């Protein structure tokens, strides 16, 4: 039975009397085993399975826990246990009551909210205070629903006192929005919890026990929903030192005030850590104890054997740091799947991913998009790939389909045209065409006869008369291609001009600099930034667009940095593209944001970019975060390590010309001495 595998503290918690129980389960202390043991204990003592509710933050977590219960109990019992996320359970219960509710995604509701907002014609009201945009107001309303039980006007006025003159208008928009939703039966994810809470307060539900996993991550609304269930017993498992979702509305006070809010509450502490070595735990505790201690706890180390002290890696330059870590990983005997590089900011993930790729080390990324999957990076590499291998039709298509009115089918035909014009050589056909007749499209005919069946199909060059171009372009046979639009021609001109400008360039870094400065890449940046700055309504949010341009530029700089040590374009492309394609999917070093690393463990862990301003992230702290939350993030990151922990920082960023100071957490961890 599951109970027989538990240690003394876990067993005491799992077999606690019916009542209000809080289990403080620090990193690596076996919280899942304790929850599984608790469910088994309830069933063993005759609790009706349908009166047990397990609430988790992912449906996967609930499924895994019940699968473990299923090793000891038949499916006919386990399947009756209510389980899932707060939203999944609420949706299921509400559907039982009212099958007409229609759950809508946030994007759809933002559009509806905007339609209500725009009726007010805010820009014409001549207000002293600039009103919030509809998107921002919607996001604030959504955050309020999760974070407060007061009225929106009270919560909002406290948060934004300068907007008090606008509160009546805002409230009117929200009231209209809610009435429209009610009319059509639309519900948001927040509405699921609000409606279920209201129903339970009036009608209740016969529950013996509610078990809550990751209790430290619950928000005010979720806590109120739990209260409205009025079960005979509560079993909440969490760790206040791992509360890292304040930005998403999580309220650490839920776990901090448990003993005050629930009469006769019992607090259990799981103090035996089965994951990390003693030196790693000591370091984590030295830092986290700087935060206010809500419940006393002292972890007991159970691991025996190797105990490598955590190591500090100091580097003069930011990019050198990523390269050095990649070299370390290349030389380690630890399997790549059991190594993690954990980062606070996505830009750090880009740097390490690029460095690993260059050394042919496989990696997989979670929490932020892959650097090499970014369209702006793929475009740069496709241009380089085509220079190395002019027969690479897919690279050509990937480049040219960005041109307006050039889809993949037209791009493919253009590729064949240029190869025909160059008698098999793409670049001769692009730059110095030898053949001036168009090829035939009919594949059953000899290729030399051409792609097009008769001259009637040849496009008239006069349709491009108003487009400024050199005589060399004007005489190019591609202008006769009937599917080439004026926009398509302008894209070709940009590509032609770029190719003309690099005729003597041999080094990849010089090539990339030229490409990044070209009108061709400028066109792509404008296109992608506009797409990323577009709201659901079709409007362009200038701030989002500018931020997108900044991120694109950062990725381009990183790729340029990476190319500096290569003397040949082919070797650079081979390391970046071909090497990456050969890596087996799903294997490799784990590249994780701290939030994505939660709940995972690895033999070897690198925590990177431990510089003041980056980690702790002062930019996010100024937007409502706190040093305490950043410290909890550090605690979560370092406690992912079982045997080897490396803490890394750099002193300088040569691209941005910035000097860095070490993170205060390195001093708190006693890895550096205070001056």
From TrEMBL:
<keyword id="KW-0347">Helicase</keyword>
<dbReference type="InterPro" id="IPR014017">
    <property type="entry name" value="DNA_helicase_UvrD-like_C"/>
</dbReference>
<keyword id="KW-0238">DNA-binding</keyword>
<keyword id="KW-0413">Isomerase</keyword>
<dbReference type="GO" id="GO:0000725">
    <property type="term" value="P:recombinational repair"/>
</dbReference>
<comment type="similarity">
    <text>Belongs to the helicase family. UvrD subfamily.</text>
</comment>
<dbReference type="GO" id="GO:0003677">
    <property type="term" value="F:DNA binding"/>
</dbReference>
<keyword id="KW-0378">Hydrolase</keyword>
<dbReference type="Pfam" id="PF13361">
    <property type="entry name" value="UvrD_C"/>
</dbReference>
<dbReference type="Pfam" id="PF00580">
    <property type="entry name" value="UvrD-helicase"/>
</dbReference>
<keyword id="KW-0067">ATP-binding</keyword>
<dbReference type="InterPro" id="IPR027417">
    <property type="entry name" value="P-loop_NTPase"/>
</dbReference>
<dbReference type="InterPro" id="IPR013986">
    <property type="entry name" value="DExx_box_DNA_helicase_dom_sf"/>
</dbReference>
<dbReference type="GO" id="GO:0033202">
    <property type="term" value="C:DNA helicase complex"/>
</dbReference>
<dbReference type="GO" id="GO:0005524">
    <property type="term" value="F:ATP binding"/>
</dbReference>
<dbReference type="InterPro" id="IPR014016">
    <property type="entry name" value="UvrD-like_ATP-bd"/>
</dbReference>
<feature type="binding site">
    <location>
        <begin position="25"/>
        <end position="32"/>
    </location>
    <ligand>
        <name>ATP</name>
    </ligand>
</feature>
<dbReference type="GO" id="GO:0016787">
    <property type="term" value="F:hydrolase activity"/>
</dbReference>
<dbReference type="GO" id="GO:0043138">
    <property type="term" value="F:3'-5' DNA helicase activity"/>
</dbReference>
<dbReference type="GO" id="GO:0005829">
    <property type="term" value="C:cytosol"/>
</dbReference>
<protein>
    <recommendedName>
        <fullName>DNA 3'-5' helicase</fullName>
        <ecNumber>5.6.2.4</ecNumber>
    </recommendedName>
</protein>
<feature type="domain" description="UvrD-like helicase ATP-binding">
    <location>
        <begin position="4"/>
        <end position="277"/>
    </location>
</feature>
<dbReference type="InterPro" id="IPR000212">
    <property type="entry name" value="DNA_helicase_UvrD/REP"/>
</dbReference>
<feature type="domain" description="UvrD-like helicase C-terminal">
    <location>
        <begin position="278"/>
        <end position="599"/>
    </location>
</feature>
<keyword id="KW-0547">Nucleotide-binding</keyword>
